[in-house]
Amino acid sequence: QVQLVESGGGLVQAGGSLRLSCAASGGTFSSYSMGWFRQAPGKEREFVAAMWRNAGMISYADSVKGRFTISRDNAKNTVYLQMNSLKPEDTAVYYCAAAFSWRPAERSNYDYWGQGTQVTVSS
Fold it and tell me: Is the CB of residue 9 less than 8 Å from the CB of residue 94?
């Protein structure tokens, strides 16, 4: 069983930056592809970014390309999401997730989920 704990969320003004972290425990971190999703109030959870086990493959949602960067440190069992040029529409609860396979944008592909961290971007 894998446990995922997100941190780093908060309140930031439009144009600002935040870095989210997701610490994993209870499994072999390097065996998982890792993804970030977000869910705004009244909306479905949507894909943000994902990275393959050894960072050999990366995928981003069109809405965040060029602004967000996913990275991972397998030695620290942690995946990161660097978010720059934040917009009010980025406001959401951000979740990290772990999967054995690579279908990055499919929620059903992910086996484990964290509890989420709130990101609020003010205009």
Answer: yes
Asked if residue 116 lies in contact with residue 7, where contact means CB atoms within 8 angstroms, the answer is no
The contacts of residue 81 (CB under 8 Å, 6+ apart) are 19, 20, 22, 36, 48, 49, 68, 69, 70, 94, 96
Cα gap 26→63, rounded to integer Å: 32
Token pair belonging to 17 = 């930056």
What DSSP element (H or E) covers 37? strand 33-39
How far is the C-alpha of 83 from the C-alpha of 63, rounded, in Å? 12
pLDDT tens-digit profile, the chain (123 residues) = 899 999 999 999 999 999 999 999 998 999 999 999 999 999 999 999 999 998 789 999 999 999 999 999 999 999 999 999 999 999 999 999 999 999 999 999 999 999 999 999 999
